[in-house]
Amino acid sequence: MLVIGNGESRKDVDIDVLQTIKVGCNAIIRDYHVHHLICCDKKMVSEAITNNRISNKNIYTRSDWQNLFPGVSMVPELWYKSEERIDQPWHWGSGDYAVLLASELAKGQTIHLIGFDLYSTDSNVNNVYKDTQNYNKSDSRSVDPSYWIYHLAKIFDHYSQNQYIIYPHFKNLPKSWQNFGNVSTQSLDHLESNINNNS
Q1: 111 bridge partner residues
Q2: pTM of this prediction?
Q3: What is the side-by-side order of every strand in the sheet holding 163-167?
Q4: Which of 53, 60, 47, 135 is nearest to 99 (CA)?
C-alpha cells in the first residue's frame, strides 16, 4: 500500500505506474487516481466531489463535516483519548489521517510513504500544490512539522505489526521515530521495485 503526501520530493514520481492500493491527500486527485482520498479541509472536500475522479464513499473527511457532505466517509476515529491539545482529532491533518487509514486497511502489511517531507528545504512552504486554489502562496512560511512527527510516531507505535518504509528528502528520521523497529527509509530510486515486490 502507498500513502502519498504532497511534499515536493514526490513531484517527479509517476504515481500512476505504481501498482498498489493508493491513499492520497487533498489535491492529488487533480493529477492522479487514488483509491482513497483524505480531505480534512471543507474546500478540498468540495473540490474532490466536483472532480468526479473518485466516488464520494472513497473520500474521507472529519466527522465535523458529516452533515455537509452526504455519502462521504469519515476518517478513522483515534484509538486513544487525551486532554492535550496535540492529541485532539482537530489537530490531526490529512497526511496523518491518510497514514492512519492505510494502517487500518493494511494491518500486518508494508506501507510505503512518499511526499511526507516534514521539513522545507528553505523557510517557505513545501507543497507541490502551492500557488494553486485552496493552497498557500509559495512565499508562505513553512509549517512546523512537530504535530505531524508526533502523530505519525503514535501510529507507528500502535500499529507495530505494520512495516513502514519512508522515502524522505531529509537525511535522518526524527528522533522519536528512530527506535521503532518497523520504520525504515529507502531512496525514491527503489520505490517502484519495492512496491512491486511488497505490495
Answers
A1: 164
A2: 0.95
A3: 73-74, 59-61, 36-38, 22-25, 2-4, 110-114, 163-167, 183-185
A4: 60
